[in-house]
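Study this chain:
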Amino acid sequence: MGIATQYEGGLKFDGDQMYITTSGGTTLLTLGNTGNATFAGTISSGAITSTGQITGTELEGTSLDINGSADISGNITGV
């Protein structure tokens, strides 16, 4: 059952999704009925824990701690 489109102080409800928007209408956060969240911009946080697979095209950090087995394919440089 969907909810009619409405605007309330930066919240938009449209069907099975909820949006947090700026006063100008730019979407900052989308929450879907599947449990997915889509953020616009950068997320700043403390520690983040994942129990599932993390996917992406780039991972940047200052250190890496692998607990358990690791399979690294390719060249390791800067060691």
Observations:
- The mean pLDDT is 80.
- The two ends are 57 Å apart (CA to CA).
- The first strand starts at residue 3 and ends at 8.
